[in-house]
Amino acid sequence: MTPRIYFHMPTVNESMNGSAIEIQLGGELDLSLSENSTTGYRWSMLDPGTPVLQLEQETREPPTTRPGAGTARRWRFRAVARGAADVRLRHGRSWGDDAKKDFVLSVSVT
């Protein structure tokens, strides 16, 4: 798979699951994934892309005024070393055997 090459901070979302991107050393990556924590379904970080990426910030967008409405969770990474790594997250409940889905983004830092 040929990676998408970014010269400015890319914003990645669920549509890029399974994709590969390339960013420059010192650059940043913004990842935004939808979740509805009121139902117990949340994203959990399995692999933050070390050693090439460093997680700088994790935030949750404020919920809307509608009860039970979903929000987005955001992670900001900095490219701190040349090389390649995967960012891996899992969406699901912390209890039970519900179906879970994974998000994987392959990152190459040049």
What does the model show?
The protein is mainly beta. The protein has one domain: Immunoglobulin-like (Sandwich). The chain has no helices and 9 strands. The strands form 2 sheets. Strands 1-3-9-8-5 form a 5-stranded mixed beta sheet, with no helix packed on it. A hairpin with an 8-residue loop joins β8 and β9. The mean pLDDT is 85.
Q: Which CATH architecture would you pick?
A: Sandwich
Give the helix/strand class: mainly beta
Query: What is the count of β-strands?
Result: 9
CATH-derived topology: Immunoglobulin-like
State the gist of this model:
This protein has 110 residues and is mainly β. The protein contains no helices and 9 strands.
Layout of strands and helices, then pairs:
Blueprint: E1 4-5, E2 11-12, E3 20-23, E4 28-35, E5 42-48, E6 53-60, E7 71-79, E8 83-92, E9 101-109
Parallel strand pairs: 1-3, 2-4, 3-9
Antiparallel strand pairs: 4-7, 5-8, 6-7, 8-9
Key terms for this structure?
five-stranded mixed sheet; four-stranded mixed sheet; single chain; mainly beta; 110 residues; 0% helix; Immunoglobulin-like
